[in-house]
């Protein structure tokens, strides 16, 4: 039976309506599919890529001797827009170019991911499900001339010391014999005090949060052996040779896409020498060191050194290496318990040599006082054979002393301070630059908890009795201070790079976290547009001592210790060049 025309018309209209509904439903389903796909696949891919990057990180093994520092850098694939050049809050930071400021147009620009190319890294730090969120480190795959080639030519690293033996065992040096029972059974090595370059680099290979994706990195590590580099050329080489590797390095770095993310302000490197070796003030051939830390690019990076400058913002003090390199937590706990139980028969002790060439040195007076005292143990260090060169003799003396005198050496700092604290001996400092303004990442800001401070002028001008001063401290207070020193031991030693401490954080861990915190805070300041035009780099040592949240500095009781000479050359006691030269001369003496 044939349908009427009006029925056919209604049927067609219904069919068209159904088709439109189906089309709308399909479009809606497709939209939700795209939305869910983007959420679960693309965004969650950040974590997947991060975990994959961690698994394929820059090295999974550390050789006993010369380990190759390698990673597979990932090209970003686009040229990120330049970030705003802003000064961050007044921390001791790698400052940007002070001549570049935010413009009015910059202020009106929305703060978005396409403005700040580090936003993906900031998001990673907020991912609570990722144990490495906010802790990823990207390591540059430097050409071997910047690191491993130096180890292959280890005989050239020092004029007076065969450094080849000190670069064995991942930079720890040869194992120490324990004939006198001074050390524990494992973890003790004849470590050179300037071997931090290679020790730190090898520890980085075992860092649990390495990534090949620089866009999620909280910081970028540059495995350049800066200390070894300058050690090769300090004596008898012109400034062109001394500067060559540093200039080569920054030229290489600035061509990398990772550099453009923050113009290097998220980069850090390590040099196991004092800062003055890298701060040549002129282009005179007779001037000391190279100019690495004065290069514009290096001013944006953070350099970790065993002694930093109180007047500059791009270097940070980290501990000298000691002889102890634990492989597991139990090694540390056993050593700490042993240090608590020792019978300490000497009130105070001193290991060192006088500085007759420096009229402002108090070492001669300390030695005289120790000789006259019945409660002081003295190890005199001078030319030729000396027990000062025996790790066993030094540690044995520190273990039998309540207090250990730690005056300035040729520069502010000395390795002996860390050896003494490792032995549970309370350090006595005479200059705030020897520890308090140096190692703010690793030592408590309240220095009275773990040390005694006697200003140099109390010895130099007033000739106060050290024995009398130390005897006035109540025994119960001494016990509390010693326990504080012993509790600091884990964060003052570098663990064996070939293993990993289970729960404890060593000097490496503390330093890396401090760098991450510094970069993260700087990024937050940039995002929020926070600036501080009142920051005075010459007061860097003061900013490092400020309580959290405080930004303003003023007069300080330690100002006289850091009065800078008019020529800007360094400590008022001596020029930075002379300080560094004297340090090398005494290194030569210690090896002769």
Automatic annotation (TrEMBL):
It is found in: Golgi apparatus membrane. Residues 71-107, 552-592 are annotated as: Disordered. It holds the Pfam family Exostosin_GT47. Residues 132-469 form the Exostosin GT47 domain. The keyword Ribosomal protein does not apply. GO terms for cellular component: Golgi membrane. It comes from the Eukaryota. InterPro entries: Exostosin (IPR004263), Exostosin_GT47 (IPR040911). Residues 98-107, 552-569 have a biased composition (Basic and acidic residues). GO terms for molecular function: glycosyltransferase activity. Keywords: Glycosyltransferase, Golgi apparatus, Signal-anchor, Transferase, Transmembrane. It is a single-pass type II membrane protein. Belongs to the glycosyltransferase 47 family. This is Xyloglucan galactosyltransferase KATAMARI1. It comes from Glycine soja.
């Amino acid at each position: 039976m044939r349908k009427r025309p009006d029925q056919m018309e209604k049927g067609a209209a219904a069919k068209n309506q159904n088709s439109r509904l189906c089309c709308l439903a399909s479009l809606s389903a497709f939209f939700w599919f795209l939305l869910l796909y983007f959420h679960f696949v693309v965004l969650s891919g950040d974590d997947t890529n991060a975990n994959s990057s961690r698994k394929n990180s820059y090295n999974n093994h550390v050789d006993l001797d010369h380990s190759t520092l390698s990673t597979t850098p990932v090209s970003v694939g686009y040229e990120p827009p330049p970030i705003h050049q802003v000064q961050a809050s007044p921390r001791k930071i790698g400052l940007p170019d002070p001549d570049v400021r935010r413009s009015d147009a910059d202020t009106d620009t929305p703060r978005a991911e396409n403005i700040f190319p580090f936003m993906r890294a900031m998001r990673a730090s907020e991912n609570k499900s990722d144990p490495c969120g906010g802790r990823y480190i990207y390591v540059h795959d430097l050409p071997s001339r910047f690191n491993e080639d130096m180890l292959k030519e280890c005989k050239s690293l020092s004029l007076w010391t065969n450094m080849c033996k000190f670069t064995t065992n991942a930079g720890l040096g040869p194992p120490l014999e324990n004939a006198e029972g001074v050390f524990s059974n494992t973890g003790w090595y004849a470590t050179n005090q300037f071997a931090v370059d290679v020790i730190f680099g090898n520890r980085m290979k075992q860092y649990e949060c390495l990534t090949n994706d620089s866009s999620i990195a909280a910081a970028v590590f540059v495995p350049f052996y800066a200390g070894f580099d300058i050690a090769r050329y300090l004596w008898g080489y012109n400034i062109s040779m001394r500067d060559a590797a540093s200039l080569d390095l920054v030229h290489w770095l600035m061509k990398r896409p990772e550099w453009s993310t923050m113009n290097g302000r998220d980069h850090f490197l390590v040099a196991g020498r004092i800062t003055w070796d890298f701060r040549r003030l002129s282009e005179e051939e007779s001037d000391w060191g190279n100019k690495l830390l004065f290069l514009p690019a290096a001013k944006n990076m953070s350099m970790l050194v065993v002694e930093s400058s109180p007047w500059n913002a791009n270097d940070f003090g980290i501990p000298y290496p000691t002889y102890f390199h634990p492989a597991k937590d139990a090694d540390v706990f056993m050593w700490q318990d042993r240090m608590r139980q020792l019978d300490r028969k000497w009130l105070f002790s001193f290991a060192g040599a006088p500085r007759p060439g420096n009229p402002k040195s108090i070492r001669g007076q300390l030695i005289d006082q120790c000789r006259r005292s019945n409660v002081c143990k003295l190890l005199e260090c001078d030319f030729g054979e000396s027990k000062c060169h025996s790790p066993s003799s030094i540690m044995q003396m520190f273990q039998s002393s309540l207090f250990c005198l730690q005056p300035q050496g040729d520069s502010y700092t000395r390795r002996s301070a860390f050896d003494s604290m490792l032995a549970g001996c309370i350090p006595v400092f005479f200059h705030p630059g020897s520890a308090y303004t140096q190692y703010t990442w690793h030592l408590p800001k309240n220095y009275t908890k773990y040390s005694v401070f006697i200003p140099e002028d109390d010895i130099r001008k007033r000739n106060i009795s050290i024995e009398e001063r130390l005897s006035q401290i109540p025994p119960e207070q001494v016990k509390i201070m010693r326990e504080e020193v012993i509790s600091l031991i884990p964060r003052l030693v570098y663990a064996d790079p070939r293993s990993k401490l289970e729960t404890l954080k060593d000097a490496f861990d503390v330093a890396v976290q401090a760098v991450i915190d510094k970069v993260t805070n700087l990024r937050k300041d940039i995002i929020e547009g926070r600036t501080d035009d009142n920051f005075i780099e010459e007061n860097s040592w003061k900013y490092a001592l400020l309580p959290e949240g405080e930004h303003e500095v003023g007069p300080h009781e330690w100002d006289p210790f850091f009065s800078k000479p008019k020529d800007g050359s360094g400590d008022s006691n001596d020029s930075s060049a002379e300080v560094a030269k004297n340090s090398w001369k005494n290194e030569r003496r210690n090896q002769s």
